[in-house]
Amino acid sequence: MVKEKILVIGASGQIGVELTLALRKIFGNSSVVASDLREENDLLKGTGPYVSLDVMNKEMLHVQVIRQNITQIYMLAAILSATGEKNPNLAWHLNMQGLLNVLDIAKEEKLHKVYWPSSIAVFGPTSPRENCPQRTIIEPTTVYGISKYAGEFWCNYFHQRFGVDVRSLRYPGLISYKSSPGGGTTDYAVEIFMDAVEEKKYKCFLREDTYLPMMYMPDAIRATIELMEAPANKISVRTSYNISSMSFSPKEIAAEIKKQIPEFAITYQPDYRQAIADSWPRSIDDSVARQDWGWKEEYGIEKMTVDMIRNLQEMKGGN
């Protein structure tokens, strides 16, 4: 069995921190190289190798891949939906060119596997709102969604044309207590917990009845690793898999939080992110992922809320 050496690009981001730690647990600390443009996240310090890396500098990236004997890349660097709308050219350039640099190097160095995340942002107002299927009308209206959908086709192209084993998930909104939100439209679902524990109140930038697909970070990390560890012959989708675990509205999550923090109060002041949220499906059909490689979520809204609040309160108490 070939010893895997994994490079995580964007390791200090919301997904990157927890994914790096999970991979180090499985493959060993020294076998997972974390990299980012930003400073190393505090949670990663002392847990394994870290390099400062700009995915847009292809030569520098290529040198690191060769020098570190990398066999797999998890390419997580991206500009998210709400941030991307403020600077569409930068978002497109980073999200596309970064991926192409990784795919080119994967082809040249015959890497074993590449992981690249897509998003529910690929869907648009013309996609089915309920139980949005794996294959459907996709007409995204944000630069983030456009770049993710284009990226899915690049992944598929490099697989079909050059045999690169690249795999992808369309993440819903991700909820985590370990790292701060990164400028996405679903970030309210993280902020609401943090503000509930700190301030006992939250001002929401979406309407109370805005349903969006969500997932608790432990499920997202497990899904990512399960997809990457699945035998290649089980992977029927080479663009990106729909994946889901729950859908809820701000009103519903506020009600769950009130069960744990009775004095919690929420107000609503929708902003430009409302239009982005309104362009996405309310729920996702992920039956293909369940069928192909056995995806199954562990967390629903109640279990997640209890766990989030307990962990945030512990962290607050430990400060």
Note down, in words, how this protein is organized.
Helix content is 43%, strand content 15%. The chain is an alpha/beta fold and 319 residues long. The chain folds into 2 domains: 6-171 and 218-242, NAD(P)-binding Rossmann-like Domain (Rossmann fold, 3-Layer(aba) Sandwich), CATH 3.40.50; 174-214 and 245-283 and 299-318, UDP-galactose 4-epimerase, domain 1. Strands 3-2-1-4-5-7 form a 6-stranded parallel beta sheet, sandwiched between helices. A 3-stranded parallel beta sheet has the order 6-8-12.
Q: Notable features of this structure?
A:
alpha/beta, 6-stranded parallel sheet, Rossmann fold, 11 helices, 2 domains, UDP-galactose 4-epimerase, domain 1
Report the C-alpha radius of gyration, rounded.
19 Å
Count the DSSP helices.
11
What oligomeric assembly is this protein in?
single chain
- Structural class comes to alpha/beta
N- to C-terminal distance: 44 Å
How would you concisely characterize the structure shown here?
The chain has 319 residues and is an alpha/beta fold. The protein is built from 11 helices and 14 strands.
Secondary-structure map with pairings?
Blueprint: E1 6-9, H1 14-27, E2 32-36, E3 50-52, H2 58-67, E4 72-75, H3 81-86, H4 88-109, E5 113-115, E6 118-119, H5 143-162, E7 166-167, E8 169-171, E9 173-175, H6 188-198, E10 201-204, E11 212-216, H7 217-229, E12 241-242, E13 246-248, H8 250-260, E14 265-268, H9 273-278, H10 287-293, H11 301-318
Parallel strand pairs: 1-2, 1-4, 2-3, 4-5, 5-7, 6-8, 8-12, 9-11, 10-14
Antiparallel strand pairs: 11-13
